[in-house]
Amino acid sequence: MRSNSEAVVVIAHDEWHAWRQAFDDPPIELLFSVSAARNVHGRPGPFFARKHLFFIRPDGNSSAWGNTRTRKATGLMHESTVDDRPYFVYHFLDAMAFQLITSLNFTPMHGATVARNSRGVLITGDSGEGKSSLSYACARRNWTFVSDDASHLLRRCSSERLIVGAPHHIRLRPDAPALFPELAAFEPAIRGNGKLSLQIPARELSIATAPTAPVDAIVLPHRVSTAHPNAPARLEEIGKELVREYCAQWFYHWDPPILAEQQAAFEEMLSGVRTFSLEYSGLDAAVDVLDDTD
Description:
alpha+beta
């Protein structure tokens, strides 16, 4: 039987072992202390950050805090929190690492990234507009899958517009097999945020993946209802201010020095891309017109 501390290490290895070191920066440090108390999770509360400090307390049992300047974060965990693996990964393990790594390296964006012929397209927009479905539909049509809903501009490579994705898994809504019959063999599961979804290892799908891609276009999708699911999609070039306004909400406004770095990197990327709106009802028609972003 594993101890609590061993369980944390095993979970971290399982979640992150597919990633490879990208650059030679000093490492971040995550410290966990796990007590034997077993309590029931409360209702998740808000994440809080002020300047270089952040705090995570999603329930009354466990909490974490970190300092992005020192590259360290500490979590005080109850055993019940670690035992609920999806909850622990979502609210603590990934969240703590994400805050440190993003602050140090990335401009974050809520969007999918796919690439073809080494040319990347960032698909960003509101939840429900089909970003993940579009990214998988592209991958089924011989695009390379980079990320389904979280894309990160590597600030040190902003002139190259280099996006770092999360290509090892793809997350889709539970009804995705209605669109993609080959996914019927996969069972939906409850994620750590309480939502039911399909989380499928990319290695189990017949798609090409890559951890990074240089982006040449940004697309804001809008899915419309129609009696004709095969109706042509419409791709129109739009002003960059619309993309800027949407993406800026994900930057670290609570930390002015980091915010300035994120904004500067984003502006450099934005200056080198074309920006589009995509109105579509059917995924095949949407992929057809995305070919025109070349």
